[in-house]
Amino acid sequence: MKLFVTFEGGEGCGKTLQSKNLYLKMVKLAMPAILIHEPGGTPLGEKIRHLLKKSCDIPISSLSELLLFNASRSQIVADVILPALEEEKIVICDRFSDSTVAYQSFARGLDISTVEHVNGIACQGVIPDVTFLLDVPPEIGLARKRAGANDRFEQEDLDFHHRVREGFLKMAKQRPRRWVIIDATLPVKEIREIIWKRVSREIEKA
What we know:
Blueprint: E1 3-8, H1 15-28, E2 33-37, H2 43-53, H3 62-86, E3 90-94, H4 97-107, H5 112-123, E4 130-135, H6 138-145, H7 158-174, E5 179-183, H8 188-205
Parallel strand pairs: 1-3, 1-4, 2-3, 4-5
Helix pairs in contact: 2-3, 3-5, 4-5, 4-7
């Protein structure tokens, strides 16, 4: 039954809520599933997460961001994702390598081939079976979060977030068999049902 499901999208899109909803559905159905997030998910990853997202007073170059995200990623792939998939579990991940392409290449401007090469090393051959893109206009997503924003990425300007969104949409349209684009302004329940319908099909095929 092994399955790797990832959730992607810009700030405030609701992917964290929907990945948790999917995990709780799996638990209710007694399916072997784990829920993880990026960056983080391991002791090393959590330290890197704090550095990348909360340490706004420390300058971090775009290349350093790329390498830090992938240092966290290589650890969670080795310690958590690969062992879980080998045990035939369903792995649900809030962000994965596609976020790095969207943020560090499309938004930051790093060469996409460089980003994909570094991602590939960290991922060790792991590719999601299905990726849900919760698509929302940045103005709406940021409005959901900005009240108490202390995240380095949430503090970027609107043009940055538009480039992130464009990157996600371009990747999704290039690989329609893996990606599912969902209007993240829909009611939470409706989004949850769309996700479960697709995951159910993937489980049947697994």
